[in-house]
Design brief:
22% strand, 10 strands, alpha+beta, single chain, ten-stranded mixed sheet
Length: 313
């Protein structure tokens, strides 16, 4: 959107006023209106290429969580059940959250697990040992996905080489496309919204800004979703939030696994317990085939040395 402030001071003033809004008492629609009318929404474009995996995790809290339908591993179709804000969605709006491979975290399911399990998050990380069972959906990208890439958070740029490379590339492109004053405003806003996407939230209302920013991007119709660094892995992992349309048109579920996760300190051991096998085209329901669990001595060896046993996946 080509709505630029007249001076850097004006933009700074607007952002400061925006930051001072109380997220609890300020209606979501008001936040969305400010973003669209008083600021503007700069975008960066990246591709998730065909052939890549997107992995989505669901924690199994009870025996009823033995899933048998593809829909159970996808986005929520009954939007009346979405009653709170997500990092990239308001209540009542479905998004497909998953993780993709990055140079620093090669297993997307570890990133997805960190986003859903408190023992791997923030101040809890490395403190609480835990065992749990989860279901992992392995989704394959069958057609390139066009996403907006949020890589302008200072901490991530300074500490993650992969983020720094993406930041440098997008910055060069913005500087080349726009006059200097407009380019600087775009970069300032991208930093602001990247910080919002990567905020360690304390209340659900803290998601309002990132949800509104995502909604503003998606309403252009040019993007399949948004890609951002995982807060819970200290920005080493990469998350995506995709629209239901993008999932239906550009992803297919290749396989699902039941995985035991054991957390000790900052190490996580994943052990595949059951798998569906490769899905057939248009297959909607599935069963499970049990797999042999890793011997306890190999698990103990992993926690003592960090060396993984031979993968069963």
């Amino acid at each position: 959107m080509d709505i630029f402030c007249r001076t850097p001071r004006e933009l700074k003033r607007k952002l400061k006023a925006f930051q001072q809004l109380d997220p609890v008492s300020t209606p979501y629609r008001k936040i969305l209106e400010i973003i669209n009318k008083e600021l503007f929404v700069p975008v960066t474009v990246a591709k998730i290429h065909a052939g890549q995996y997107v992995e989505r995790v669901r924690i199994m809290n009870n025996p009823d969580d033995i899933f048998t339908k593809k829909a159970d591993l996808s986005y929520i179709t009954d939007t009346s059940k979405i009653t709170t804000f997500g990092r990239a969605n308001p209540p009542g709006k479905a998004m497909f959250y998953g993780a993709v491979k990055s140079t620093m975290v090669s297993s997307p399911r570890i990133v997805a697990l960190a986003e859903t399990e408190e023992a791997l998050q923030g101040v809890n990380k490395g403190i609480t040992d835990k065992k749990l069972i989860m279901t992992v959906g392995k989704w394959v990208v069958k057609k390139d996905l066009i996403v907006s890439e949020m890589v302008f958070k200072k901490d991530a740029i300074d500490n993650i080489p992969e983020v720094k490379r993406a930041f440098d590339q997008h910055s060069r492109e913005i500087m080349a496309r726009h006059p200097l004053p407009e380019a600087k405003q775009s970069l300032a806003l991208l930093e602001f919204f990247s910080e919002a996407m990567a905020k360690r939230t304390l209340t659900n209302a803290d998601y309002k800004i990132s949800a509104a920013f995502t909604e503003s991007i998606l309403k252009t119709g040019q993007f399949d979703g948004i890609m951002f660094q995982s807060v819970q892995t200290d920005f080493e992992g990469t998350n995506v939030a995709l629209t239901p349309k993008a999932v239906d048109e550009s992803l297919y579920l290749e396989e699902a696994l039941v995985v035991a996760a054991e957390i000790r300190g900052k190490r996580v051991f994943l052990d595949n317990l059951a798998r569906t096998g490769i899905f057939q085209p248009d297959q909607q329901e599935f069963g499970w085939a049990l797999m042999e669990a890793t011997p306890e001595e190999e698990i103990e060896h992993f926690f003592a040395t960090g060396e993984l046993p031979k993968s069963k996946d």
